[in-house]
Amino acid sequence: MAEFSSQNRTLISSATLARPRGRFIYWTVLSVVLVVFTVVFVGPLYWMATSGFKSVHEVLHNPPTLIPKDPHPSNYKTAWTQLKLAKLLWNTFYYAFGALAFQLVFDVAAAYALSKLRPVMGNIVLGGMLATLMIPSAVLIIPQYMTVLDLPLLHVNLINHPWAIWLPTVANGFNIFLLKRFFDSIPNDLMAAAAIDGAGPMRTLLSIVLPMSRPILGVVSIFAVVNVWKDFLWPMLVEPDPEKQPINIGINSLSQGVPQNVLIAALAISALPTLLIFLLFQRNIMSGLTAGSLKG
Amino acid sequence: MAATTVPDKTTRRHAGRAAGPRAQGGRGGLSRKLSQNLQAYGFLIGAILCFGFFSWYPMVREFIMSFQQTKRGVTSWVGFKNIKTIYHDPYFWTAWKNTGMFTLYALVIGFAVPFLIAILLNELRHARAYLRILVYLPVMLPPVAGALLFKYFYNPEYGLFNRILKIFHLPTSQWLDSSNTALISVVIAATWMSMGSATLIYLAALQNIPGELYEAADLDGAGLWSKIWHVTIPQTKLVLSLMLLLQIVATMQEFTNVFLMAGGNGPENSTMTVVYMVYQYGYRYNNFGGAAALGLFLLLVLAGFSGLYARLNRNSD
Predict the structure, then answer these.
(1) Fewest CB within a 10 Å sphere: which of A102, B79, B185, B259?
(2) Which chain B residue is nearest to residue A56, measuring alpha carbons?
(3) ipTM of this predicted complex?
C-alpha cells in the first residue's frame, strides 16, 4: 500500500478509475491480466513440475491432465541418479561460487584502486576495462578458447579446469563500472580520516568501504552467480569432460535416450536452484536490474 | 562523476607537495608517491591479468587469427584466404539472413511486447509485486530447462501448443520441424525466456515520468492513445532506444536457443545463425582461422551498433 500512495499518477487518473465505469474496466483488466500472466509465466513451470510426476503414457496423453492421475515420485529419483544430477548441480555450484569469489576479490580491489587510490594511468586502465563492454562476447569466443587451451607466457592448458570458467568472469567491465561508481560516492573525507588514524589502504577497504557497499556487493554477487548458472556455450567448450560439466550442458548431452518423464523431472530439478535464488533475493535482483543495466 | 574526481586529485596533489618536503625532503615525496602507486597496482593486478588474458589479448588475437591458418601444428600467414573462404561458404548468406530475421522477429515481438506489458503493469494498482515476479520468473530458468521445455510444447504430435490450437479448431503448426516456422518458434521461446528484464527496465522508466505531464495532457483532452504517443513514448525515448540497440547486439549473437531447440542449424539450415556458423567452423571443421574471420565480420557489423549505444549512453549521463 505504501507503494501505491507514493506512486506518481500515470496514464489513467485516479479520478477516472474512481468512476463506476472506470472501476469496472479496471477490475476486469486486472483479473484478466492476473489470469493470463499466471498461465503464461507459471503455467509452463507448473506443467514441468507436474509432468515430472507422470508416467510416459500420461505425459503424451491427449488432452493433457492437469493433475497427475497416478503420481510417480520415483521419476525424480531416477532423474537424480540416472542423469547424475547431484554431480552436475555440484559442478555448477562450484563454478558459480568460485566465480563469485574471484569476482568479489579482484573486481572489488580493482574498482577500489581506480576509485580511491587513483594510480598513474588509472584512467587508461579503466578505459581499457570499459572498452571490453563494446566487444560482443560471441566474437571473442574463438580466441578466448585458444587462450585457455594454452595460456600465454605460462603455457598451461585450462581445459576441464574450473579456472577456465572462474578467471574469465573476473574480466567483467560491467562489474568494475558498477563498483567504481558506488565507491566514487563514498566521501573522501572518510578515507582521509582513516588515513589519519593510521589505516592503510587494505584496512580502509575492509573496515570502511566494504561495510558501506553492501547493497552493490549484493547486486554484483547475485548476477555473478546467476550468470555462471545460465551460461551455455563457454562451459560447453571448456569443460568437455562429462564429469566436470555444469547442469546446462550435462542435461542436454545426456537427454538423448532418457524417458521423457524422467527428463522433464530432471529439468524441474535443474530449474529449482535459480528460481529459489530469485524468490529469496528478488528485491535485490530487481533493484540491481534497474540500477545498473541502463548505464552499462 | 568528473565533478567529484577533479577536486580530489588537486587536494591530494597539494597535500603531497605540502607534507612531502617538510617531513621527508623532496626524494621522500617521490618515493612515497611510488609506493602509493605500487600499492594501487597491487590492488589492480588480479583484474588486469584477467582482463589481459581473457579480454584484451583475445581481442588482438581475433584479428591475428583471421589472417592465419594452422595445419598440423604449424601456423602460417594466409592473408585474406580465411575471409575469402568464409565469404564463399554456400551458407554465409543463409546464416546472415537467418540472423537478420531472428533479430527482426525478436524486435517485433521482443521489443514491443515488454513495453506494452510494462505500460499495462504501470497502470495496475494491485498485485504489482506479484506480477513483476511473474514476468521475471522465466529469466531465472537455466537455458536448458527453458529450451527443452519449449521443445516439448512445440512437438507437432503431442505438444501442448498444437493441442491448444486443436481445442479452438485452429490450424496446427509443425513449429520447430518445418523450415518455415522453426526460426520464429525459437524467437517466441527466447522472448518468453528473456523479456522479464526488459519489462522491468521499462517499468522503472515509466515510473520516472512526471505525473504533471499526464495531467496537462488530460486538460488538453488527450485520449489514451494520444497520451501514450505524446507523453509516454517521448519520455521514455532514451531508454527505448538504448534497449533497442542492446537487443540488436544481443540477438545478433544468438546461439544457445537455436542450439538447444533446433539442434543448431534446424530443418534445411533454417535456423543457422552466424554464431552457430562460427561454432561449426571452429569445433566441427577445426578451422579456427575461418571461425575467427567470420567473427571479424560479426564484429564489424556489431561495432556500429555498439558505438551508437555508447554514444546514446554517454548523452544520458
Answers:
(1) B79
(2) B158
(3) 0.87
